[in-house]
Amino acid sequence: MKLNSFLFVLFFGFGTTLFAQKNQLWFGTKAAYHSDGKYINDIPRGYEPFFINHVGRHGSRYMTKAGADSVLFKIFNLAKLQNGLTNQGKKWQKLNNWLLGQQNGKYAEITALGYEQHHDIAGRMQSHYPNVFSKNGHYDIWITNKLRTKQSANGFVSGLNFKNNLKWNQQPENAETMLRFYDYSPIYDSFVDSSLQKAKEDSVASFVNINEVYNSVAQKIFSAQILKYWKKQGTSIVIKNKLTKITPKLIATSLYEVYGVGLSTSIEFSKSNVWPLNWNSPFSEGELQALGKLDGVEDFMVKGPGMDLNGIQAEIAAPLLVNFINTSDSILSGKKNINGIFRFTHAEAIAPMATLMELSQSNHATTHISEYFDYWQPYTVIPMTANIQWIFVKNKTDNILVKVLLNETPQKLPFKSENGFYYSWSLVRKYYVEKLSKMGAHLDGDMKIFLQNIGK
């Protein structure tokens, strides 16, 4: 275990390491990536790995912009002037101030933990499939226009024992249809913002009695007197140039976000002068569950299976799946000599891709949205550094099999396997090409036009 990781276990935690492990799923998309380190060499006898097609979410990051940290900064300062902070409030004012300073100038960037996550994934990949990696091999790296994907790619490359023969690629910013396809469909935007989505989110809020949670959390941080006074006076703070009332909801949701993002700063925190305070949870297990379920429902609806496994939230990922198939074809046919393709993108790309491929935790739609967490947990699908890998192997007769991994866990695909988790490439290709065709997405199609017309 690395020293920084050791310090994290000792000092960062949630009071206890067991609490962190037990409640990790409630952190949703903010959760730090975890690999159990287990690897079973299940490569069929007579086969050798020769190519990896990969896409990964950026590593653990800071907030993308000032938000909840600034909101809490204002509320804490006001409460301090009015002597309205509890002991927990005083503690979290210090922790929030530290995070605010730590993020200054680094919003939207990955943290040291995010860099380390990708470094370790690359190291494990190279260790498991050494035939794919060599100084004489050729590798394509794809990033988006967001700095955090380049930082993540650098972390990944640092985990390899060579740096040569790497070709860096990026689509034009106005046509990033492979890795940021979700930004090019007006109808998808309307789907995300629809009243139906809001109604379903409200149903989950009611199911978990979220208002009780908001009040309970607020009362831990601020005195009953100050909360009563703020409510009576309608006390407000300025957020994005608008007066916004201080409410238990604003307090609890801001603290939940700060706490979650802070989990990504374990290495920086362990080196700071405030770590003796511990970044332990300000929430009870029940509160964290309620906040986590409410936080994850939108992801389930607009990035995951939602109410329709073949809905627009899955179709939107067609350009990425098309690219996976086309690039695999070009290598397998000998048109290109590439040993690995490694893409770095965002949660909005990984979850729809997993849904489109019908991977585990992403293959069960439901109209009973209040029960969605029984079928889909964002922590298992799109934590920070989430990834999908296609591992290709072949034998001496050039029979080609492929294994699909979601977050380094082998996946059962929706058809018969050839050998354990390995499937005939021709069968995999046929299944997904037919599925894409039914959506109007063709291997030789213009993906920007497809995205502009999707759902019409």
Automatic annotation (TrEMBL):
The keyword Ribonucleoprotein does not apply. Its main location: membrane. Pfam families: His_Phos_2. It comes from the Bacteria. It catalyses: 1D-myo-inositol 1,2,4,5,6-pentakisphosphate + H2O = 1D-myo-inositol 1,2,5,6-tetrakisphosphate + phosphate; (2R)-2,3-bisphosphoglycerate + H2O = (2R)-2-phosphoglycerate + phosphate; 1D-myo-inositol 1,2,5,6-tetrakisphosphate + H2O = 1D-myo-inositol 1,2,6-trisphosphate + phosphate; 1D-myo-inositol hexakisphosphate + H2O = 1D-myo-inositol 1,2,4,5,6-pentakisphosphate + phosphate. One of its GO terms (cellular component) is membrane. Gene3D superfamilies: Phosphoglycerate mutase-like. GO terms for molecular function: bisphosphoglycerate 3-phosphatase activity. The keyword Cell membrane does not apply. This is Multiple inositol polyphosphate phosphatase 1. Belongs to the histidine acid phosphatase family. MINPP1 subfamily. Its EC number is 3.1.3.62, 3.1.3.80. It is found in: Membrane. Keywords: Hydrolase, Membrane, Signal. It is an enzyme of class 3 (hydrolase).
